[in-house]
Every structure is written in C-alpha cells, then in structure tokens.
Design goal:
three-stranded antiparallel sheet; 3 helices
C-alpha cells in the first residue's frame, strides 16, 4: 500500500501554506485521494507533480 501524506505534511515539504496545496488539488495540478473528509496525497503523486514543474533555463 502507498504511503498517504496529509495536506499539512505536503505543505511542509513544499515550503508553502496548506491553502496552496488545496488550490493545487482543486485545480487538478496535484492528484489526491479523499479519505473521509480529509485529503491525502501519495508520495508518488507528489513526486510526479514535482517532476512536471521542472524548468529549463536558457
């Protein structure tokens, strides 16, 4: 089974506030699972999101 992280844990890893993580989820940029009333993000989905954010500098 995949390890699911809380929104707070993801926010701490990204260095942003929890509201930003929720915004990423609702915009469809970051995949999440709803467990009860709480959102959970798998480590794989977070890594996939981060890989999509790579920027090439000229």
């Amino acid at each position: 089974m995949k390890k699911l992280m809380k929104v707070k844990e993801v926010a701490e890893q990204l260095g942003v506030v929890e509201k930003t993580v929720y915004r990423l989820i609702w915009n469809g940029d970051l995949k999440a699972k709803k467990v009860g009333r709480a959102m959970r993000i798998s480590a794989e989905d977070l890594e996939e999101y981060l890989n999509q954010q790579d920027v090439k500098v000229a």
